[in-house]
Design goal:
This protein has helices at 18-31, 49-54, 73-87, 98-111, 220-229, 237-241, 272-278, 295-298, 307-322; strands spanning 4-9, 11-12, 15-16, 35-42, 59-64, 91-95, 116-119, 121-125, 128-135, 140-144, 151-155, 172-175, 205-209, 232-235, 262-266, 283-288, 301-304. By secondary structure, the protein is of the alpha/beta class. The protein has a seven-stranded parallel beta sheet with strand order 7-11-6-1-4-5-12, sandwiched between helices. Strands 14-13-15-16-17 form a five-stranded parallel beta sheet. The protein binds flavin-adenine dinucleotide.
Length: 328
C-alpha cells in the first residue's frame, strides 16, 4: 500500500552525507509507490535541495533555523517532532549514524512507536516490507516487519545502494518553520581534530592495522596503500591500546562499524570484537604472518607473510596498475 515516508537528510560541514541518498532508496521501498519526502535541516542549506531530488526524493521539506546549524539532541528532536506533526508520515527513515542513533530512540519514545535500528536491507515481500538487521555482533541476521503503526527505521551506512542519480529530477519544496526553545545545550564552536583524507565511516576502501604494525611508524606503509586506493586507514583496538594510532580509527564492537567495498586487515588477528565492526565488508583481504590467525576465516583473500614486505609491494604494484603518479 502506498505510503508517505519521511527521510532524514544528514548534513556535515555543509555537505550531504551519502547515507541521506541511501535513506531515500530505502524510503522508496517502504513508500511502495507513495511519496518520499526528504527532511533537510540546518542554516543556509537551500543549495542542498537539488541533490536530494536527483537521488529520488519526490518532495523536500526545508527547515531553516539558526539553532539547527550544528546538531544538538534537543534542537533536532524538537524540530523533527514538529515536522512529523505537520507531515503525518506513515514511515520515517534515518541513517544509523551518530545523529540517527541519538535522535531516533527519543523520537520513537515520543511517538510511542517501535524502532527497527541498524537495518542493512529493506525489501518488499508480498504486501509487507521486511527489514534485515545484524544481531550478535554480526554473527546472525534477523528479519523484522512492522505489523501496525508507523514504520520507523535507521539504516546502516554503505549497505543500501542509492538510486541512480538523475539530474533532470525535481520536485516541490515545502518550507516549515519550527519553534525551538528551552535548549539545555548550545554549540558555540566546533573544534575538529585535524584529520586528513577520507572519512572512515563512508570509505569504500579501508586499510586497517593491528598490533602487528609494531609502532606508530608502522602505520606509514598502510597510509601509503590507502592513498593509492583512495581509501581510509582504520585500526584494531589492539593498535589503539598500544598507542600506535588514535582511538578515532578503532573498528569493532566498541569502535566504528564499517562496510567498505574492500577491507584490508594488516597484522590483525581477527578477534570477535574486531570482526563485529568489519565482517560485513564486501571483500576482505587479510595479511598476517600467522596462517592460523582467525582473520583468515572471514577473509576472501589471505596473504600469509610479513606485512612490512607485502604492503609496500602491493602499493607499488597498484600504483602501476592504477597509473598513479608520484606527487612532486
Ligand atoms: P593481536 O591479537 O595481538 O594480533 C596481532 C596480529 O598481528 C597477530 O595475528 C600476528 O600474527 C600478526 N602480526 C604480527 N606481526 C606481523 C607482521 N609483521 N606481519 C603480519 N602480521 C603480523 N578489538 C577491536 O579491534 N575492536 C573493538 O571494538 C574491540 N572491542 C572490544 C571490547 C571488549 C569488551 C573486549 C574485551 C575486547 C575488545 N577488543 C576490540 C579487543 C579484541 O579482543 C582484541 O584484543 C584486539 O582486536 C586485538 O587486536 P590485534 O588483532 O591488533 O592484536
Amino acid at each position: 500500500m502506498a505510503k508517505k515516508i519521511l527521510v532524514f537528510s544528514e548534513v556535515r560541514e555543509g555537505e550531504l552525507r551519502n547515507v541521506s541518498f541511501e535513506a531515500i532508496a530505502a524510503g522508496k521501498v517502504v513508500a511502495d509507490g507513495g511519496e518520499v519526502v526528504s527532511v533537510l535541516m540546518g542554516e543556509n542549506i537551500n543549495h542542498l535541495v537539488n541533490p536530494l531530488f536527483h537521488y529520488g526524493s519526490d518532495r523536500v521539506v526545508v527547515v531553516n533555523h539558526e539553532q539547527l546549524k550544528s546538531y544538538t539532541t534537543d534542537a533536532y528532536q524538537q524540530a523533527l517532532l514538529q515536522v512529523i506533526d505537520s507531515e503525518s508520515p506513515e514511515g520515517i527513515i534515518l541513517g544509523h549514524t551518530a545523529i540517527g542513533k541519538d535522535v531516533s530512540p527519543r523520537i520513537a519514545t515520543k511517538l510511542q512507536a517501535g524502532l527497527i535500528s541498524d537495518a542493512v536491507a529493506a525489501e518488499k515481500n508480498g504486501e509487507e516490507i521486511v527489514f534485515t538487521r545484524p544481531i550478535y555482533s554480526g554473527k546472525a541476521f534477523e528479519k523484522k516487519k512492522v505489523k501496525e503503526g508507523i514504520v520507523f527505521a535507521t539504516i546502516r551506512p554503505n549497505n543500501i545502494a542509492p538510486l541512480e542519480k538523475d539530474e533532470s529530477n525535481s520536485g516541490e519544496i515545502t518550507n516549515i518553520s519550527v519553534d525551538i526553545k528551552d535548549l539545555r545545550t548550545v554549540i558555540k564552536d566546533i573544534v575538529r581534530k585535524a584529520t586528513s583524507g577520507v572519512d572512515l565511516s563512508e570509505a569504500k576502501v579501508i586499510v586497517s592495522g593491528g598490533r602487528g604494525v609494531k609502532n606508530k611508524e608502522g602505520f606509514k606503509p598502510l597510509h601509503e596503500l590507502a592513498d593509492v586506493l583512495g581509501g581510509a586507514v582504520g585500526a584494531s583496538r589492539g593498535a589503539c591500546d598500544a598507542e600506535y594510532c588514535d582511538y578515532s580509527l578503532q573498528i569493532g564492537q566498541t569502535g566504528k562499524v564499517v562496510t567498505p567495498d574492500l577491507y584490508i586487515a594488516c597484522g590483525i588477528s581477527g578477534a570477535i570484537q574486531h570482526l563485529a565492526g568489519m565482517s560485513s565488508s564486501k571483500v576482505i583481504v587479510a595479511i598476517n604472518k600467522d596462517p592460523e590467525a582467525p582473520i583468515f576465516d572471514v577473509a576472501d583473500y589471505g596473504i600469509v607473510g610479513d606485512l612490512f614486505e607485502i604492503v609496500p609491494l602491493l602499493t607499488e604494484e597498484l600504483k602501476e596498475v592504477l597509473n598513479v603518479k608520484e606527487s612532486v
